[in-house]
Design brief:
six-stranded mixed beta sheet, globular, about 1000 residues
Length: about 1000
């Protein structure tokens, strides 16, 4: 018969084992791969340790590390033991003979397959669940440290009369233990049940009993433990009601017990606790009764009770007892929420006083004189003038300023404090002439110098009046270390102090170089350190580069927020660090907060939402690090500093009464210095933080009221207005300025904001906080509440009043001529003699340079509006003491700014020949100015500018002449009450109809 095989019948090739050489090579490669992976893991650990040691906070690293390791091993071993012991026990309790059935015959194959590997399978399963449980437990290191180090608040909750520390520190840890216990019980039940099934202790289709007595007893005990844990959960749920968040139709977000919680849920949880205990005992009783009948009945009753008592009964109480008379039922609980929330957010001492919103003084001259005492009106907006600083003081392309500058106080020559806009000339890697590894990390390593300007003044061209400028910086700040190795824009590593010199700046004499002499950073002279950083940073050049040698140090984690957050991971960091010259050093000052979400009855807030405003929406530079953190207690408990040269981080206690800070100081001893160690020079620059203020103002939109009925009615709910000068439809940011609130004798450096009634644009209140550290009432919040019977213009209405004034609108249109742009600065609000003075700087970005210059100032008080070149002129117009001296022509020796380009089309006539002629003359003057600039003829340019000013003045005068409509406008759009028209006509043209 022919061969019917399926292939060739030739000789078979025998596949032998790999040669010894190949096996050795493969084994060597495997070992090397394992060693490489181990070194990568080691490199991350080693570089972290070196960094913490370099900043002097190695105790933070070790405390955190050992806590994580301890939790990992303890809870990992507990979980592994729980699951492993129950698998082993289920195996030991297997029946000696399995039933004769198809089900058991199928399982025999699996039993035989795993029989040789039972030991290793048990070890693998227990190791896996242990690793998962240990990793989860290690993530709870903060919860553990707060529980073990917690100190009392010495405040009791109003329902259970327990110290607040129980809810803030103890309850979170108990809940973790409970969750871990549930996980261990469930995994043990599953593992034991599968083992019993595999070895015949549980049967699904076999004849006879479905479970052996041993399996019944074993699983009953495990289920009994689960039900017992459920009883503990019911008991803890009682306390959890005090910190439970829920939606409350009358108030929105709500934390704490309401009527239905205290009178339905609380007794229901107690009853369910008792039922669960009884049910657990029934499961344990199966060890003797060997039947699941009673436990199953008990478990069913527990589930039914949870539905009826825990769900249906509270719904009935809410529907038929609370809703028909909600205010009366909820008022006692609302009062508890009001008191707790005000305590938790530090707004309990807020001083609210009535304020008329309208001045009663007829003496305008006195009011004009009182303005200087009321506030130091800051015209330089730190959120707009950064491009101006950049253009005038950048000096080198490899320097730059942040998009938002900062406001601080510095002493002037006469010793008085002066609001100052300040920024650092930080390193800008995008401006390096040639980007390569050496330039980016060795030569261009730092910024250089402080630039500061008076906040209340500008020069005759609208530029800041610098008090510290040039390169190297010089001015009123004296001598200080100007090199900036740590800053907000310094986000990548540098290697300094070695053979490679670093560039400070260059001048006519060539490059000025330096070599870092600070003790910051990690020494790279050690080959092990170099290898570890080469792996961690993915930079193999570090291993062999000749630019690294004796004395080389690597600097990283260089932004102030990064450094403070790393050395104090238990703090929440403010979104804005700011620089100050303290002594002979530049120090970054960082505000840090302690928080918890376990303060009973205090309503929660999301930090990322409440600290958002038009600035964070615009450039994302000012936002709290913990965007989604929900908290219901916050304190500015720590002030931190970061030295811009050495990177030294110092944490200072600020709130000496904060129990959360005391808890963390116990957990991390010697990391936070006492408040008494803050120097007087540093104290002069500390201020009230913006993010805390924004959280407080958001809470005060509802919690400024103190009685429950008003709170529930919602009639006094306020809202933070949108920024009227910004198109983002986001909240107006708070503003720093030195001002005096009614009742105060002197000005304080303050943080201010305003409120609108909910859904309306008029002003409901004005809020300020004393932001000047070291003063007696630092942190005192004052609110001026406007009368509800009359309306006072809010920020949006004031801006609308400005924009709708015809004369002002015409001047704005002319300022926007050509490719120029107009930016509105911060709209400052200042209480003055019962009324409110609004001041807004107007900036123009003209020509190709596109940096803003202060050109005009808008001022309004009562029904008077002014739009003038300077603040003094605007105030004079508003208060009836106008002094309209013509502007001086530019100095011939100084090159003036480029004029704004005119529109291609002439503006339409408004019906007045004089106005049209004035506009035509203005157009002609602009053209003449452009031609003079092309020819570098500064004398002709000055004459053209004078013609332009004269034409604009004639345009204003033409608009102010009486016409058929009786517009009654004064020059510059002001309604100063000096013309002889009747009041009703003056009101029509006053521009106050917004």
């Amino acid at each position: 018969m022919p061969d019917r095989g399926g292939g060739p019948t030739g000789p078979r090739i025998r596949v032998g084992r790999p040669s010894r050489r190949v096996r050795t090579l493969l084994m060597t490669l495997g070992v090397l791969a394992v060693l490489a992976m181990a070194f990568v893991m080691f490199a991350g650990f080693w570089t972290d340790w070196l960094w913490y040691r370099s900043v002097g906070y190695s105790s933070v690293f070790t405390t955190t590390l050992w806590t994580k390791i301890g939790l990992f091993f303890v809870f990992g071993l507990i979980m592994a033991a729980a699951v492993g012991v129950n698998i082993w026990l289920a195996h030991r309790l297997r029946p000696p003979l399995s039933a004769m059935s198809m089900e058991q015959q199928s399982l025999d194959r699996y039993r035989m397959a795993i029989a040789p590997y039972k030991k290793w399978l048990l070890i693998g399963i227990t190791a896996l669940v242990g690793l998962i449980a240990g990793a989860s437990a290690a993530g709870q290191w903060r919860t553990w440290l707060m529980w073990v180090n917690g100190v009392p608040f010495h405040q009791k909750d109003p329902q259970f009369h327990l110290d607040v520390a129980f809810f803030a520190f103890d309850l979170p840890w108990y809940r973790f233990l409970l969750g871990f216990g549930f996980a261990a019980a469930v995994l043990s039940v599953i593992a034991a049940a599968l083992t019993h099934y595999l070895y015949g202790g549980l049967r699904i289709t076999s004849p006879g009993g479905r479970a052996t007595a041993a399996a019944t007893g074993h699983l009953s005990v495990l289920i009994g433990i689960f039900v017992a844990l459920k009883a503990v959960a019911y008991w803890l749920d009682r306390y959890g009601l005090a910190v439970k968040s829920s939606d409350f139709k009358a108030t929105g977000n709500w934390t704490g017990l309401r009527y239905v919680d205290a009178n339905a849920y609380l007794p229901a949880k107690t009853i369910l606790f008792c039922i669960a205990v009884i049910c657990a005992l029934l499961f344990f009783a199966t060890l003797w009764r060997r039947t699941w009948q009673l436990p199953v009945i008990g478990f069913g009753l527990m589930v039914l009770s949870a539905i009826l008592i825990g769900g249906l009964y509270p719904a009935i109480v809410q529907k038929f007892q609370v809703q028909p008379n909600e205010q009366a039922k909820e008022s006692p609980y609302v009062e508890k929420n009001l008191e707790a929330t005000r305590k938790a957010y530090g707004i309990g001492g807020t001083n609210v006083r009535e304020y008329p919103g309208v001045s009663k003084t007829q003496d305008k001259t006195k009011l004009r004189d009182d303005v200087a005492g009321a506030a130091s009106l800051r015209l330089l907006d730190p959120n707009i003038v950064s491009p101006t600083f950049q253009q005038l003081q950048q000096m080198k392309n490899y320097y730059g300023f942040p998009s938002n500058l900062d406001v601080d106080r510095y002493k002037s020559k006469d010793g008085t404090a002066q609001d100052t806009v300040i920024g650092l000339r930080e390193l800008n890697l995008d401006g390096i002439p040639k980007n390569n590894w050496i330039n980016d990390h060795f030569r261009y390593t730092h910024g250089y110098g402080v630039v500061a300007a008076k906040g209340t003044e500008a020069d005759d061209q609208g530029r800041p009046k610098f008090t510290e400028s040039d390169l190297p910086s010089k001015g009123s700040l004296g001598k200080y270390e100007q090199r900036i190795y740590y800053g907000e824009k310094t986000t990548q590593y540098s290697i300094v102090g070695g053979p490679q010199k670093e560039i400070d700046y260059s001048d006519d004499d060539g490059e000025k170089t330096t070599s870092y002499r600070g003790k910051s950073g990690v020494n790279l002279s050690n080959p092990l350190n170099r290898a570890a950083y080469a792996v961690s940073f993915g930079e193999p050049q570090m291993l062999y580069s000749g630019a690294i040698g004796e004395g080389s140090r690597i600097l990283y984690n260089r932004t102030p927020k990064e450094r403070v957050e790393a050395v104090a991971p238990w703090l929440t960091i403010d979104g804005d660090a700011y620089p100050a010259v303290v002594g002979n050093r530049i120090q970054w000052i960082v505000d840090a907060y302690t928080t918890t979400n376990g303060y009973p009855y205090a309503s929660r807030t999301t930090l990322g939402d409440t600290t958002a405003d038009s600035l964070t929406a615009k450039n994302n530079q000012r936002a709290v690090v913990a965007q989604q953190n929900q908290v219901n207690y916050i304190r500015n408990s720590v002030k931190a500093t970061v030295d811009a040269y050495t990177g030294d981080v110092k944490l200072y206690e600020w709130d000496t009464k904060d129990p959360v800070l005391k808890t963390w100081r116990k957990a991390f001893p010697d990391t936070v210095k006492d408040k008494s160690e803050i120097s007087a020079a540093l104290m002069d620059h500390l201020r009230y933080p913006q993010d805390l203020f924004k959280v407080q103002r958001e809470l005060l939109t509802r919690y400024h009221v103190k009685d429950a009925e008003t709170f529930l009615s919602g009639s006094e709910v306020w809202q933070v207005p949108d920024d009227p000068t910004n198109q983002t439809s986001s909240a107006v940011p708070p503003y720093y300025l030195s001002m005096k609130m009614p009742g105060q004798k002197t000005q304080d450096f303050s943080l201010t904001t305003s409120f609108n009634p909910n859904g309306r644009d008029n002003l409901s209140a004005f809020m300020s906080v004393n932001a000047e550290a070291g003063t007696d009432d630092y942190g005192k919040i004052r609110i001026l509440k406007m009368p509800s019977s009359t309306t006072v213009d809010g920020p949006k209405q004031v801006q609308s009043k400005f924009n709708s004034n015809e004369a002002i609108a015409e001047q704005i249109r002319l300022l926007k001529g050509g490719d120029s742009e107009v930016d509105y600065g911060n709209l400052l609000t200042v209480p003055l003699d019962g009324g409110l003075l609004y001041v807004e700087p107007v900036y123009v970005k003209g020509g190709g340079l596109k940096y803003p210059l202060l050109k005009k100032v808008l001022v309004t008080y009562g029904n008077k509006i002014a739009f003038e070149d300077t603040l003094d002129k605007a105030l004079n117009v508003v208060f009836g003491t106008a002094d309209k001296s013509p502007p001086e022509p530019p100095d011939k020796g100084e090159k003036p700014e480029k004029p704004d380009k005119p529109d291609k089309e002439k503006p339409p006539a408004t019906g007045s020949p004089d106005l049209q002629k004035a506009i035509d003359d203005a157009q002609k003057a602009i053209d003449e100015g452009k031609e003079a600039l092309k020819n570098d003829d500064w004398e002709a340019y000055g004459k053209a500018q004078q013609k332009l000013q004269d034409a604009l003045q004639r345009a204003e005068d033409a608009q102010s002449k009486p016409s058929g409509s009786g517009d009654g406008k004064g020059s510059d759009g002001s309604s100063d009450g000096t013309d002889k028209k009747p009041d009703k006509d003056a009101d029509k043209g006053g521009g106050d109809s917004g």
